[in-house]
Automatic annotation (TrEMBL), chain A:
One of its GO terms (biological process) is GPI anchor biosynthetic process. The chain crosses the membrane at residues 200-219, 270-289, 335-354, 361-388, 394-416, 437-461, 467-492. It comes from Pomatorhinus ruficollis. The keyword Repressor does not apply. This is PIGQ acetylglucosaminyltransferase. GO terms for molecular function: transferase activity. Coiled coil: none annotated. Keywords: Membrane, Transferase, Transmembrane, Transmembrane helix. It comes from the Eukaryota. GO terms for cellular component: endoplasmic reticulum; membrane.
UniProtKB/TrEMBL annotation, chain B:
It holds the Pfam family PIG-H. The keyword Transmembrane applies. Pathway: Glycolipid biosynthesis; glycosylphosphatidylinositol-anchor biosynthesis. Residues 89-158 form the Phosphatidylinositol N-acetylglucosaminyltransferase subunit H conserved domain. It comes from Pomatorhinus ruficollis. This is PIGH acetylglucosaminyltransferase. Belongs to the PIGH family. GO terms for molecular function: transferase activity. InterPro entries: PIG-H (IPR044215), PIGH-H_dom (IPR019328).
Length: 573, 188
């Protein structure tokens, strides 16, 4: 049987004493947490360990003896250390001794009640106590949730060191009966800035909570729930984004301390993400307002809208002629074309009505970019949606006409074959029609069939335009989602303090000498960047994609209206 | 104690297997592939630069040349850091676990440690790779719910792809250590 001893590398140069730590009998391994130096009174040591056990719920006990002799091995010391084994009875009693500056230590065990007296092999594993204490072990992502107690042996070791923090609070300058050596025995480290921030965060959180409750109270007031306004809020993506950020602020400003690692990282990620967002937004704002760029933007907005409308008019004139050499039905063509042209004319008039106010509106709306870059991008997306509203209208008209035509055609086609759609049973049944029904049905079918190319062409052109606008809006939303969900704090932590996020451990074999135990160095294997993003991604409010490609194509073919993205609050249909 | 032997990979490239026994229950097996050759590197660079000069002669735009240099440098860095694996090693520590390390040409090392409790067995398996059937060594991981089942298969030495004779040597070394955990009365 192999005995594994996990020894902290900070205790390598400690003076002689006894080893305290945790013995994990299922794994036959001993995790050493600290060294207690002479002189000590055994009763006091046992009392101290009992207190530590009560506070940390880790079964800390005396595991063995450690002797660090600067000169040759002393026989009396070794006998004294063996006698200690009888006072603190522990099975097995581990004895580690180091001579001078030698790297190779001798390690032996004393078994009083063992049945097989064979010599067992000892593996000495060095570990960096501070890093193991601060690190958080991540289970593999696919089996998360199925991990039981005995599944991961290493997590027991990480757990032991992390929970024994109270043991590391006493350093060698403290006056007390017990003198310990561990990673903080040279003095407890702390940072003034961190302490000051902790003190300042409590009143800041309370203030923020107050402000947020005011704002959310206003948002929930009945005034804003009337029909036109509530419809408008649900359609504008800026309001969704603002609501999302409000939620984030509520999470950060809550006064409850984070229970576990996940919640702490989530809070930190949200905080850093908000900070970076607002910083980028203010940068954008300062760039926009310098040299009156926003005024120039407002000045170019109307000519751009005019230009788009002119292009649409040209397109319609082209469709009314012989587009791509196809021959259209002259009458229907003229009707549809004139209808859409009049629509564009109305739209241009409305835009021109608004043109004196555009600059002022844009100036004030641009100020809201200080709430964050994501808000600015959402406003951009909304402005694009508003400016291309006529394209959306045309798409809806074209789609409805085409949809009506397709349904009419399919129903009359069934009439041709003598069948009927049974609504009650949701299937196609045969039916005998009268002669006049057949006659009218055939006439209508022919009319619809020959008018199909014209309608289909209009539908095709306007669907393509609509898809173009949707793609542009989709890209902007993708960028907003990226900024929203990227866990920046975790990524920076992975870059700077990679031992905090551990995917596992790695062992390095150190120099060996025959007759001495096997020496290994245990280091922390950090999580990959992809793993960090996957584990700590912040949830967003939209889900992609709404339809699969097949259903999208089917909808396009039938003329049903498509809404490429949905939000988590929408009802499923 | 260390020993080295030469073998061939599945595609005929010469590789070396180095075996080190650190202690009775700890063995390290490393398969080293051939290093990056200077002539293939210079051939690739010259080809890219000749193409760039040709484009420059056609288009008279000096951006093409700087773009070619940039592409060559970035491509070389990406190749050395992410693609070219120099050495793959297997460290078997009885009662702790198995550690699989891949060292890249730029010095980067990517390590995976599998605890002994999760390892069911180490076996040699056959696979169809492109147009060949090759042998490969893999670690079978235990399914926590089903004691007879296998939850995952971890293939080893994927970039050097040694042939069967090399794999048999590695297999024998691993099994000597893995056998001991079955004879031990308590599981580890």
């Amino acid at each position: 049987m192999v005995l594994k001893v996990f020894f902290p590398s900070c205790c390598s140069s400690a003076d002689s004493g006894i080893l305290i730590g945790r013995w994990i009998s299922e794994q036959n391994s001993a995790v050493i947490l600290a060294v207690v130096h002479f002189p000590f009174i055994p009763v006091q040591v046992k009392q101290y360990l009992g207190e530590v056990q009560r506070v940390t719920k880790v079964s800390v006990s005396v595991l063995g003896s450690w002797s660090n002799s600067k000169q040759e091995k002393e026989e009396s010391l070794s006998e004294f250390l063996e006698d200690l084994g009888t006072i603190f009875c522990h099975e097995p009693w581990i004895q580690i001794s180091k001579e001078g500056d030698s790297k190779f230590w001798s390690c032996s065990t004393l078994q009083k009640h063992s049945k097989n007296p064979q010599e067992e092999e000892i593996i000495l594993v060095y570990y960096d106590q501070r890093k193991v204490m601060l690190s958080h072990l991540h289970p593999p992502l696919d089996t998360a949730g199925q991990r039981t107690e005995d599944a991961s042996k290493l997590s027991a070791i990480f757990d032991t060191v992390a929970r024994s923090q109270v043991l590391f609070m006493t350093d060698r300058y403290d006056e007390g009966p017990i003198k310990l050596t561990h990673w903080q025995s040279d003095g407890v480290e702390a940072s003034i800035i961190v302490e000051l921030l902790k003190q300042a965060s409590v009143p800041a959180c309370m203030l923020l909570t107050l402000l947020l409750s005011l704002v959310s109270g206003i948002c929930r007031s009945r005034v804003l729930k009337f029909w036109p306004l509530s419809f408008l809020w649900s359609k504008l993506s800026t309001c969704e984004q603002l609501g999302h950020r409000l939620q984030h602020l509520q999470v950060i400003s809550s006064s409850k301390k984070a229970q576990n690692q996940n919640q702490l990282m989530r809070k930190a990620n949200i905080f850093v993400s908000l900070l970076i967002d607002v910083a980028l937004g203010i940068l954008l704002m300062s760039w926009l307002y310098r040299k009156n760029r926003i005024g120039h933007l407002a000045d170019t907005l109307i000519p751009v809208a005019d230009h788009v409308a002119e292009e649409l008019q040209d397109l319609l004139q082209w469709l009314m002629g012989a587009p791509a050499g196809l021959k259209m039905n002259r009458a229907l063509d003229q009707v549809l074309g004139r209808f859409f042209l009049y629509h564009i004319h109305l739209w241009i008039s409305y835009i021109h009505l608004l043109s004196p106010f555009i600059e002022m509106i844009l100036w004030y709306v641009g100020l809201s970019a200080c709430l964050g870059l994501t808000v600015a991008l959402c406003i951009l997306s909304d402005i694009i949606a508003l400016l291309t509203f006529h394209i959306y209208c045309f798409y809806v008209y074209g789609a409805r006409l085409y949809c009506l035509k397709i349904y009419g055609l399919s129903s009359l086609w069934r009439l041709f074959r003598g069948k009927k759609w049974n609504v009650l049973r949701q299937r196609v049944d045969s039916c005998s029609y009268d002669l006049d029904q057949l006659f009218i049905g055939t006439l209508l079918f022919t009319i619809l069939l020959f008018l199909l190319p014209t309608t289909a062409l209009y539908y095709l052109v306007f669907t393509l335009l609509r898809l173009l606008v949707v793609i542009v809006q989709g890209l902007i939303h993708l960028l907003v989602d990226l900024i929203d969900s990227l866990p920046l704090y975790s990524l920076i932590l992975r870059l700077c303090r990679s031992y905090r996020l551990a995917a596992g451990v790695k062992f390095r074999v150190l120099e060996q000498q025959d007759g001495k135990p096997l020496r290994l160095l245990m280091q922390i294997n950090p999580l990959s960047y992809g793993g960090v993003v996957q584990t700590y991604r912040l949830p967003t409010y939209s889900c992609y994609p709404r339809d699969s490609w097949a259903s999208l194509c089917k909808k396009l073919f039938l003329g049903e209206l498509i809404y490429p993205w949905k939000h988590k609050g929408d009802k499923q249909n | 104690m260390a020993e080295e032997r030469r073998f061939r990979s599945a595609s005929g490239v010469p590789i070396t297997l180095r075996r080190r026994q650190h202690s009775a229950s700890c063995r390290e097996l490393a398969v080293r592939g051939p290093r990056l050759q200077l002539r293939s590197l210079s051939a690739a660079t010259s080809a890219v630069w000749l193409a760039a000069y040709g484009l420059f002669a056609l288009s008279e735009n000096s951006m093409v040349l700087s773009a070619a240099i940039f592409i060559t440098l970035i491509g070389l860095i990406i190749y050395l850091h992410f693609v070219k694996i120099d050495q793959e090693s297997l460290l078997v520590i009885g009662s702790l676990g198995i550690q699989v390390t891949s060292s890249y040409a730029s010095g980067k090392e990517s390590t995976v440690f599998i605890e002994m409790g999760q390892v069911k067995d180490v076996v040699i398996n056959e696979a169809i790779h492109m147009q060949k059937v090759i042998y490969y060594l893999c670690i079978l991981l235990q399914d926590p719910e089903d004691p007879q089942g296998i939850s995952e298969v971890v293939p080893l030495f994927q970039s050097s792809k040694p042939r069967l004779d090399c794999l048999i040597e590695v297999y024998k070394s691993c099994q000597e250590i893995l056998e001991r955990r079955k004879t031990a009365p308590q599981s580890i």
